[in-house]
């Protein structure tokens, strides 16, 4: 059964939306584990700080169905499907890795190419699964994080928020 890692991020009502997304991920994927939560600056545009983390789970659900479920959670958090790429967002759920699957499709590239370039993806993944070997880099996520210029891309650890059940 493949291990799947998903980046979770929001900078619009961030604590509430990240809390809601983590609760929904627990419903959809019962084996889910979460990295610590981090606050970091918006990348690629001016905006409020983001809250980011990484979720990891095992599943037999095919990758495109996982993506569809993630889109459903994004919608539940108030993100329209046509939201601009470099703009504030209520929820962003991106598959970073799906086992060792290599994919190069217009809407899904695996492993996610910017995983090794973005502290808000790589740092939380390293906290969650440091011994995981990146399928194309052929080194552990922990080693990739050790090499990363963390001073240029600071992450601030924050406490998780729970969202009341509706």
Commentary on this structure:
The chain is α+β, with helices and mostly antiparallel strands and 166 residues long. It has one domain (3-158): 7,8-Dihydro-6-hydroxymethylpterin-pyrophosphokinase HPPK (Alpha-Beta Plaits). 28% of the residues lie in helices and 23% in strands. It is built from four helices and eight strands; from the N terminus they run E-H-E-E-E-H-E-E-E-H-H-E. The protein has helices at residues 14-28, 63-76, 119-128, 141-147, and strands at 3-10, 33-34, 37-40, 50-58, 92-98, 103-105, 108-110, 156-158. Strands 1, 2, 3, 4, 5 and 8 form a six-stranded antiparallel β-sheet that branches. Helix 1 packs antiparallel against helix 2 and helix 3 (119-128) crosses helix 4 (141-147). The radius of gyration is 15 Å and the shape is globular.
Number of separate domains? 1
CATH architecture, by name, is 2-Layer Sandwich
* Main sheet specs: 6 strands, antiparallel
CATH topology: Alpha-Beta Plaits
* CATH homologous superfamily identity: 7,8-Dihydro-6-hydroxymethylpterin-pyrophosphokinase HPPK
Strand content: 15-25%
Contiguous low-pLDDT stretches (5 residues minimum) are: none
Rg: 15 Å
Q: Which of globular, elongated, flat, extended, rod-shaped describes the shape?
A: globular
List keywords for this structure.
166 residues, two-stranded antiparallel sheet, single chain, Alpha-Beta Plaits, alpha+beta
